[in-house]
Amino acid sequence: MTQRVFIDGEAGTTGLQIRERLEGRRDIELASIDPAKRKDSDERKRLLNSVDAVILCLPDEAARDAVKLIENEAVKVIDASSAHRVAPDWVYGFPEMAKDPRAKIAASKRVSNPGCYPTGFIALARPLVEAGLIPRDWPLSVNAVSGYSGGGKAMIAEFEDEASPSFTRASYRIYAMGQKHKHVPEMQKYAELARAPVFAPSVGRFSKGMIVEVPLPLAALPGKPKLVDAHAALAAAYEGERFVEVASLAEAATLKTLDPEGLNGTNRLKLFVFGHDEEARLVALLDNLGKGASGAAVQNLNLMLGLEEGAGL
Questions:
Q1: Are 264 and 209 a contacting pair, CB within 8 Å?
Q2: For the chain, what are the domain ranges?
Q3: How far apart are CA 48 and CA 9, in angstroms?
Q4: Torsion angle, CA of 57/191/93/84, rounded to 10 degrees?
Q5: What's phi and psi for 184, nearest 5 deg?
Q6: What does each C-alpha distance from 302 to 5, 206, 297, 308 come to in angstroms?
Q7: Distance, CA of 34 to CA of 11 (rounded, Å)
Q8: What's the rounded Cα separation, in Å, for the pair 74 and 66?
Q9: Which entry of 58, 66, 116, 234 is annotated as an active-site residue?
Q10: What is the CATH number of domain 3-114+293-304?
């Protein structure tokens, strides 16, 4: 049976990527709004209430407004914004997260897609917290670099549009130096931490791709875990997963560097443990528009509609 899906915000970066992954599938029929009626609230409301599932690819406030327009209780919603990521009545859509939430995602009418940075951080930190290697009140930090597409139209213009007042030729820059970032609450909540991590995001002159790092002073932790213990906790957490892979310690030891664009165009997330028994460098590699956004949304959609989880991915 074909199920109808409406992407509200399909002209944006994430919306276009989701559409690309869904087009041509026989089990999905895409409903689209007439471009001339994108700002017509009556037409949007009609579409939002006439399909089996909606994927919201909108700014946070617009996503909240869109949810208010949905009166049909049968419509399933995936929100790709950060508007509902820590809301108690929404399910967090990270299927591979510890304590496997697939059943909750499949049964839910409201699923919030994880952020790209939190996907990498939570994937690295939560298994070690659950294994008791990292205390819940440990002062973790997370350093990360993303392709500029993750910043939406404004940041894309900054790196691509020479006519834009914000255009820069910089190859790399840091941002959010005031230490207030919308991703931090979901990082803390879903890594099950008692205190928020110190988040240091940056952006490079490449469109998409991402590296997320968590430095870990093993010798300073209460149990003084070894490098092999950190790796074993991650390997056990993601054993048998299709889209999350933990590189062996042997593979990690052979690497001299990592390319943040190495998994572009995929829904894959690859985790690495570098270092030695005194200190570790936990690293996640992913496509910020793949497993960090559109790929994750399609994976969640498949689960919510009772379809094969990896369809279109």
A1: yes
A2: 3-114+293-304, 116-288
A3: 12
A4: -50
A5: -65, -40
A6: 11, 30, 9, 6
A7: 12
A8: 15
A9: 116
A10: 3.40.50.720
Rounded to whole angstroms, the Cα distance separating 292 from 237 reads: 19
What DSSP element (H or E) covers 61? Answer: helix 60-69
Which residues make Cβ contacts (< 8 Å) with residue 266, sequence separation at least 6? 287, 290, 291, 295
Sequence-separated (6 or more) residues with CB below 8 Å from residue 29: 2, 3, 4, 5
Weakest-pLDDT range from 4-8, 88-92, 177-181? 177-181
Q: What is the CATH number of domain 116-288?
A: 3.30.360.10
35 alpha-carbon distance from chain centroid: 28
Q: To 5 degrees, how large is the angle CA 15–CA 304–CA 287?
A: 40
pLDDT of the residue at 176 = 76
Distance CA 100, CA 192 (A): 15
Exposure pattern of 248-265 as b/e (b: 16+ CB <10 Å)?
A: ebeebeeeeebebbebbe
DSSP string, 72-129: -TT-EEEE-SSTTTT-TTSEE--TTSSS--HHHHHH-SEEEPPPHHHHHHHHHHHHHH
Helix (H) or strand (E) holding 19: helix 13-22
- For the question of residue 116 being annotated catalytic, the response is yes
- pLDDT for 54-100, tens place per residue? 999 999 999 999 999 999 999 999 999 999 999 999 999 999 997 77
Report strand pairing: 269-275 vs 280-286: antiparallel
Mean pLDDT in the chain?
93
Q: For residue 291, give the DSSP letter.
A: I
How far are the Cα atoms of 18, 129, 146 from residue 181, in angstroms, in the given order? 25, 22, 15
Of residues 157, 152, 159, the one with CA closest to residue 173: 159
